[in-house]
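Appendix B. Extra example for self-study. Work through it before the problem class; the solution is given directly after the inputs so you can check yourself.
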Amino acid sequence: MPTTRLATSNDLPAWAIVVACILAAASLVLLVIEMRRRERGGIGILVTGVLALGALALAVMRPVRIAARESVVGARVVVLADTSRSMALASEGGRTRQKTRDEVVAALSKAAPDARVLELGFADGPPKPLANATGETARGLRSDLGSAIRALAAMPEERPSAVVVVSDGRLDEPQEDAPKPVLAELGNAIHAPIHTIATTRNELPDASVRRVANATAAVAHVPLPLRVDIGCSGGLACEKLTVTAKELREDGPPALLASGIADVKDGKASVDLTVTLDRAGVRILEVGIESPTGDAIPENDRRLITLNVARERVRVLHVAGQPTNDVRALRQWLKSDASVDVVAFFILRTPADTPGASQEDLALIPFPVDELFSVHLPSFDAVVLQDFDAQPYGLERHLPALARYVRAGGGLIMVGGPNSFVAGGYAGTPLGEVLPVSLDGAPGATAADTAPFVPAWTEPGRSAPVLGPLRAILGDELPSMPGANVLGDVRPGGVVLWTHPTRATKSGAPMPVLAIGDEGDGRSIALGIDGGWLFEFSELGARTAGRGHGALWDGLLGWLMRDPRFEPAQVDLPEGCIADVPPTLRIRTAGRAGKGETVVLDVTRLDKSGTAPVHVEKPLGEGDAPLEIALPALPTGGYSARLRLGSGPTTRRDFACEAGGDEWADSRPDPERLRALAAATGGTFAFADDVRAIRLPKPTVVSAERHVVPVAPPWTWTLLAATLLGAHWFMRRRGGLS
Amino acid sequence: MRRSYLVVVFMLTVVGLALLIPQPARAFGDAGGFDPRILLTGSQTNAARPSAPGRWSWELVQRTSAPARLRPSLVHASDATITDGPFLYWSGDAAVPALTSAEIAGLRRFFALGGVMLVDDAGVSNEGAPGAFGTSARREIARVLPDSAPITIGADHVVFRTFYLLRRAEGRIAGPKTLEAIVRGGSAQVIFSSHDLGGALARGPTGMWEQPVIPGGDVQRERAIRLAVNVAMYVLCSNYKDDQVHAPFLMRRRALSPHSEP
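Solution. Structure tokens for the complete assembly:
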């Protein structure tokens, strides 16, 4: 657009113009004062004086005419709209905060038609285009405004002239009550004022579990203190609320671990609970309160906490029916591993034995079967029953408890021998139901095959990580065994790793010798031989320095304890799981890509209620890139994802889907934080119904072409000033002034 | 008539139920049982007390739940099969010649796998002074395990409480109260007995004890057999009786025991 305007000479600094104007104004004031002493001709003196002063000023400024082609460029304004989950909560009028937010963003664009408005959404990490963010509704797991602004400042594009934040104010960063310098630092980072608009004014009547904090890492069998912060807002009547901590388990209803009473004062309360988790690995804890009457958001009355429970040491109960070379070898391996805490009970004397000595001369203590398998059983991570007959020692009455222990997450290994499996009376018992193989409970069933044999590898056995260390030492070679327990077909969920080379089950399949399987939350192993010691003491053992025995048991116990080294795959949820939002599972496999295997994924609810199981089958790709599987939206609850590669063993990952997570834990809006942020960064604050109060920057004028021409030559202004000064001097003298 | 009928029915029922119980296969487990393998070196053809290992196994099976081979095997130190089991019994009543390099290598492989050996001096004097075998065997073991030296192990060692609570070591002769052992990796891998333990165990085909036990007679023989059982249990269970759950119990029992030390 072509424009023409007047200006002062380019060679004058701004201060010179200011000085000239000041001197002219001062001279005019002196002239008015002097006018009181005049004798006559007042108007003439004044007119000539004003004209002379004006001419003098023009002589200094020497006006020029500027002809230009100019355009108006609107200021760059970045709107950062909160896309966290808290925006899905309600605000005034029953609308969601997200809807109010979207209306504000639209109103801002209308209020500043000249501005170049960039609409971004912020939640966790760098901001994203708002179009995408709104399309996915409010689903961010955090409200990290600080990271968004810093990412914005680091962008190579044009720096914004202003930033407008539209949020409910419940932010992760800057934190509540952040000091002014911290808030100002955000403005300094972007070199622009931060204006803020609060979507919400009022608090909803809501009681919630705001925070569950554990001061220390979760370790199995070690009491874990939890601090539970309770909030009550929006005028809801809360006085005493019962707080409970439960563990979600697959083998039954949630198990109550601890409870307490929250005495709510000034809308807040804290309760300290102590829970002890018996099983290591990923565990889901439900911490909840009783919903008070009138609670507008009952979804945040319980939190689902995912704890990765570690172990200080693996506690193993080793029970052996008789001392043998195999018992010796296993005991020495267990005792040699500093990370294993072994409690051992070996039957050294049966009622048929005649030691020929009084009890005082015997170093024997009673086998505390009742105490072990009732009181202390949950404290063990794994139970090894080696060549142990359940009947003579009263273990039969504890077999249901032992089966429950496995389903609740315990590990069980039954090792062969003349007193194991069928001969031990386990067929048809609850314990037999948690073994990975079936046992023949028919009268007169054959218990053992005493013919020497060399176990045969199965295809899953060759590829299973659990036997990876053993194969690394022995390859395909295995020592000859003096006999085997007769085992039945593998049960659903079990995987056979070794078979008998000649013997078959009733179904005609090769008889399992080593099988592993998942049962409920736990795992079990059936090893139908008592010749494990031959991995050490044999020609093969001597050739391999006996390392095969340790490698075998390292894998078996490690698999039982879900050691990641022995899992066929690693499963995680990179973005967590929010209820009713489709989650994505990421699967990493070690060295399995390109083998044409199929990933079979089953997702079930831990409490087995309501939601239908999810079953997905997907071919494993060629490359090593993680495989991502999108799941359908899941309701609130704990879930178990079981993954099987081909016909190999399964790997399991438990996870929880929360309705709102941290974002819903505290539903109160925080407009004061937004107000403080605006004040600290030179911006303005407004509520959503007063968007026009936000002072957005004016547009910038950009000249494309410019011509500067003096209005008159400089000497003209000097001559004019001299002439008018002379006329003024004449009028002063005539009027009686000096 | 009616009563005898009921008895017959009862007996048939008992027999029937007995037949229904799954039968364990003893041989399946015996392969992993205690085997007091006789170690031969040089031109040696048998143990100093050939019947002792068999009797040792028999006593173990009778007194404890441990399975054992009633016909123990013989193995030469240079034979590859020396590493086929975790225990060796080396006894003699005469000096042994210097071990060959093959014998040393075989024994080193055996010890490297964690094997345990009992060196039993059958030529010990009645006063317990080591005989020629004991002296020469110590010398040769020092060549096999040059980095280890024997130490004295007394009643506080787990060998003395693996099955029986024993206060001292005894064999055919009373000898010293203690044993000696080379301890490697926390375990006694070579146990030296200067008591002719095999002499107390040896029993002929007629059922007669082959050697008189002095000075304690049958009572001392019983204690010697108990020591042999304990050694076998140590081989099979290692330091099981040192476990935390056992230690306080056994210490209390030992303190309360009315038996005086022989």
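Self-check: The helical segments of chain B are 2-20, 26-30, 52-63, 101-112, 132-144, 197-201, 217-237, 247-256. If your reasoning did not lead you there, revisit section 3.
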